[in-house]
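re: ur question from earlier - yeah i can do the single chain one, its not a big deal. heres the input i used so u can compare w yours
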Amino acid sequence: MLQQGFYQISERKLGFGAFGSVFAAVDISTKRQVACKIIDLCSIANKVKEEIHGLRQNESDNAAYLDDYRRRMKTHTQRASQEYLLLAKLSHVS
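and the output i got, formated as tokens:
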């Protein structure tokens, strides 16, 4: 188990997505089992680099590309916010 701040994070992976993985963990102060999402910042940085490369490759289509990029980032941000709110309400005792 890895202790990170207020949590002890196990090696038991509960799931994963495009930007990170979710592991079983324990809140040290309450001893409650929680889910801890660890975001891979390198993966996010690589995706941003890919987007920038795409912009440079498609200079004539930049306006349309930027609009599409803004829309996708807004969707990602909304999903992350919804996930945060959902996980904040989640309580699992075992």
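The mean pLDDT is 78. not sure if urs matches, ping me
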